Amino acid sequence: MAMSSILKADDIKKALDAFKVADSFNHKKFFEMVGLKAKSADDVKKVFHLLDADHSGFIEEEELKFVLKCFATDGRDLTDKETKTFLQAADKDGDGKIGVDGKACIWVELA
Asked: Binding residues for Ca(2+) 2, per the UniProt record (predicted)?
């Protein structure tokens, strides 16, 4: 399954373009721009599983660094600062990874 089967390709491109510059990434704005906040809980979980590269059921820091590339192959890597900021915002239990919480992903609910 591709990200573009869940989200609109134009929205993804606009969001990636908006955060092209290093240290400009804002997960709340990004999720809003790609239309993820308006999706059903099932669609949010599908996106989560696409981002969970090792299929562990969690998104770890190393996977989070490459999150924009999961939306499009020309997406950039997050900087260490962006990655750590994103992880701190979404890691509710302090275990260093992001999980799915009930009906939706914690990281999207933050948006």
From this structure: 91, 93, 95, 97
- 3-state SS, residue 58: strand
The annotated binding site is made up of 52, 54, 56, 58, 63, 91, 93, 95, 97
Residues making up the binding site for Ca(2+):
52, 54, 56, 58, 63, 91, 93, 95, 97
How confident is the model over 68-94, as pLDDT tens digits?
A: 999 999 999 999 999 999 998 888 788
State the total domains in the chain: 1
Closest CA to 51 of 29, 75, 28: 75
Indicate the pTM of the whole model.
Answer: 0.86
For the stretch 30-46, pLDDT in tens is 999 999 988 888 898 89
CATH code, domain with 62:
1.10.238.10
